[in-house]
């Protein structure tokens, strides 16, 4: 977007979108923070609890401990340690808002 008073060409800021993909159809893949994904998909009830779980290294993504700010993508494998039980899921979809009935369609348990 070119402004009237400057000769600089500025581009709009696309937050949470990945523009590094080569295929134009894949260029704007929706990304979401890990703590928000865990809350939206209802794997963890509250976002603050999800944030604390990430800080305490109870959440791993693709086998590596992940921070709450990690950008979740389709195809990622997320493991959550709930005491003695570990839940591993594969991300099938990323959406900003999902109804309670459709939340389980965002992931598949492995």
Write a brief caption for the model.
It contains 2 helices and 9 strands; from the N terminus they run βββααββββββ. It is an alpha+beta fold and 110 residues long.
Model description:
The protein is an alpha+beta fold and 110 residues long. The protein has 2 helices and 9 strands, in the order E-E-E-H-H-E-E-E-E-E-E. The chain has a single domain (17-109), classed as RNA-binding S4 domain (Structural Genomics Hypothetical 15.5 Kd Protein In mrcA-pckA Intergenic Region, Chain A), CATH 3.10.290.10. The strands form 3 sheets. Strands 5-4-7-8-9 form a 5-stranded antiparallel beta sheet. It starts with 16 loop residues before the first strand and ends with a strand. The model is unreliable at 9-15 (pLDDT under 50).
Determine the oligomeric state from the structure.
single chain
* CATH superfamily heading: RNA-binding S4 domain
Number of domains: 1
Low-confidence stretches: 9-15
Total strands: 9
Principal-axis shape equals globular
Which CATH top level class fits? Alpha Beta
| Strand ordering within the main sheet | 5-4-7-8-9
């Amino acid at each position: 977007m070119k402004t009237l008073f400057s000769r600089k060409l500025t581009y709009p800021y696309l937050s949470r979108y990945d523009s590094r993909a080569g295929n134009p159809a894949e260029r704007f893949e929706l990304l979401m923070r890990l703590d928000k994904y865990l809350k939206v998909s209802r794997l963890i009830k509250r976002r603050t609890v999800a944030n604390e779980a990430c800080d305490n290294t109870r959440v791993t993504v693709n086998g590596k401990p992940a921070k709450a700010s990690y950008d979740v993508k389709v195809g990622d494998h997320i493991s959550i340690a709930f005491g003695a039980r570990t839940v591993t899921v594969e991300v099938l979809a990323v959406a900003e808002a999902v109804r309670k009935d459709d939340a389980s369609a965002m992931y598949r348990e492995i």
